[in-house]
Design goal:
The complex is a heterodimer. Chain A is mainly α. In chain A, the strands form two sheets. A two-stranded antiparallel sheet of chain A has the order 1-4. Chain A has a two-stranded antiparallel ribbon with strand order 2-3. Helices cover 73% and strands 6% of the residues of chain A. Chain B is α/β, with parallel strands linked by helices. Chain B is 37% helix and 26% strand. The chains are: A mainly alpha, B alpha/beta. Chains A and B meet through helix 6 and helix 7 of A and helix 2 and helix 3 of B.
Chain lengths: 304, 239
């Protein structure tokens, strides 16, 4: 039981990170119908901006942890958003009316480009960060096994839930959210009622990048090391999460992220760690075969 | 000065020339109708006025200012609203949200007043206001599409086949509302129809389009009396 609970905690934490990245995939797919394969790299850039910001704050002598984390989060959200915005502006907008394949290939190209860009700027070696938040709760001692719920995990879960609430309010209550949903349902009609479609699409990329950058920050704090290649695997897993939840569905992205995190944690714990990626991707294959619309996805909008 | 001037407009879909030099004017306060067979280019003209697709040649002016190359959303902000072909209401939004979307370009302070006006025109929408757009019947969706267009407080209302697929009684109702909006709100209406009889009876002036060109024009009465029109569009009952 204690072991099970521990895996549940680990899986939830991981799932929160995947879920935050998955939202970016699902939003972009919802509005322009493309899979932004460079989104994993946006997450990676978020992690790099975070580590640089931590080091700079360290040099400035800002050591109080809550303030430091808050500042780093603001900085990485702002800077990473710029990358998300530029990605759409430079690479995708000129291809808006091209065949889907062109956009897909461009996305893969941008993914490779961003990986190499970071590798050139930051070097290929892994970058370590000292634990920022340490300690935690320990309970349910069973012989020599103790369940530990670290403060870092608590922080990740609570922060993600807060971001979810803010994000849901943004989509459901604000003018941008309404414009976003209108564009998702009918891009051409949205323009016909006076919505600036280009700006809405830009803001969608910015929002997705901001959430992914926080996921990058969490990844950095959770694992303590990053390199230019982390976006690839995390990105594909988050993409799997988005498909599992139903691509285009925002609650689906979060749910899919949690499930992928849990599956990965339990698989590693009860079967083999080596094959945890196989487990996650087998899910992708199974979902695509048996339920292509995902758990919460809607079938393609029928024209009425 | 005409409110809307379309002069020498050509529009392409890929290599297909859908509009081949179209000239149309609409004066302030008028109801002008455009009739023609399927595929004549009527809907293309309405969409070209809104900048999607763009006119490849020619000029479109609204209130004397050229709008030919403005982005669609800015054309709408100038005061042109369209209820497009196929209605295109937002299926996963409620009736109220659809109307709210229509008011995107308007000061929110006017919202309640404008919604009430739409609900007075179409009381059924008030009953359905919390229902999702996709669950409405065809006639209700048409009313919603027109209502949504009215929410942007347009000066020129473009209507694309509002009677398509509706029962005769509903068709009458839709047309009487159009006449009413024109009279009481002084709204200028440019109406595309296949239902030539009703449209020409309602309109001050009309144009006939065939193969991407205007082939005839005149007052509603003149066109109704024209034997060619009677043979091509009106024989076989009053639709």
């Amino acid at each position: 039981m204690a072991y099970f609970l521990q895996q549940l905690i680990n899986g939830l934490t991981l799932g929160m990170i995947y879920g935050l990245i998955a939202i970016g995939y699902t939003m972009v797919y919802g509005i322009i119908g493309m899979i932004n394969f460079a989104h994993g790299e946006i997450f990676m850039i978020g992690a790099f901006v975070s580590i640089i910001a931590f080091l700079l704050l360290g040099m400035l002598g800002i050591g109080w942890v809550p303030l430091a984390v808050l500042l780093v989060m603001i900085v990485t959200m702002l800077l990473t958003s710029v990358y998300g915005w530029a990605l759409e502006r430079v690479a995708y907008r000129p291809l808006r009316n091209s065949p889907r394949l062109a956009a897909l290939i461009t996305a893969i190209g941008m993914s490779i480009f961003l990986q190499n860009y970071v590798q050139l700027l930051q070097g290929a070696r892994v970058k370590p960060l000292q634990p920022v938040i340490s300690g935690g709760l320990r309970f349910m001692k069973q012989s020599d096994f103790v369940v530990s719920f670290s403060y870092l995990q608590i922080f990740i879960i609570i922060l993600t839930l807060c971001l979810m609430v803010v994000f849901t309010l943004l989509i459901n209550k604000t003018a941008f959210g309404r414009a976003q949903r209108a564009c998702q349902q009918d891009l051409g009609m949205a323009a016909l009622i006076g919505i600036n479609v280009d700006r809405t699409i830009s803001l969608t990329f910015v929002t997705g990048a901001a959430l992914a950058s926080v996921a990058g920050l969490m990844f950095l704090m959770n694992y303590g090391v990053i390199d230019f290649y982390i976006g690839f695997l995390a990105g594909i897993k988050a993409f799997t999460a988005a498909v599992l939840g139903g691509i285009g569905s925002l609650p689906g992205a979060m749910l899919g992220g949690l499930l992928i995190g849990l599956i990965e944690a339990f698989w590693s714990a009860y079967f083999t760690v080596e094959y945890k990626d196989v487990a996650a991707f087998s899910i992708l294959v199974l979902v695509l075969i048996f339920r292509p619309t995902g758990l919460l996805g809607k079938p393609d909008i029928e024209k009425v | 000065m005409s409110m809307l001037t379309v002069s020498g407009v050509h529009t392409f879909y890929g290599r297909i020339e859908a509009l081949r030099g179209v000239d149309v004017t609409v004066e302030e306060g008028e109801i002008v109708t455009l009739i023609g067979a399927n595929g004549a280019g009527k809907s293309t003209l309405l969409m070209t006025i809104c900048g999607n697709p763009r006119a490849a040649a020619g000029r479109i002016a609204f209130d004397g200012r050229e709008i030919t190359s403005l982005p669609t959303h800015n054309i709408v902000r100038r005061g042109i609203a369209q209820s497009p072909e196929g209605r295109r209401i937002f299926p996963f939004m409620t009736v109220l949200e659809n109307l709210q979307m229509g008011a995107s370009v308007v000061d929110p302070a006017h919202f309640q007043e404008d919604v009430d006006r739409v609900f007075t025109l179409y009381p059924i929408l008030k009953e359905r206001r919390h229902q999702r757009g996709g669950t409405l019947s065809g006639g209700e969706q048409q009313m919603l599409a027109i209502g949504r267009a009215l929410m942007s407080r347009p000066r020129l209302l473009l209507l694309d086949e509002p009677s398509l697929g509706l029962a005769p009684l509903l068709v009458k109702q839709i047309f009487s509302v159009i006449a009413d909006i024109n009279k009481t709100q002084k709204m200028t209406v440019f109406l595309v129809e296949q239902n030539a009889y009703h449209a020409l009876r309602l309109a001050h002036r009309g144009y006939v389009m065939a193969n991407g060109q205007i082939v005839l024009s005149g007052t509603g009465q003149e066109l109704l009396a024209n034997p060619e029109i009677r043979a091509a569009y009106l024989e076989g009952g009053h639709g």
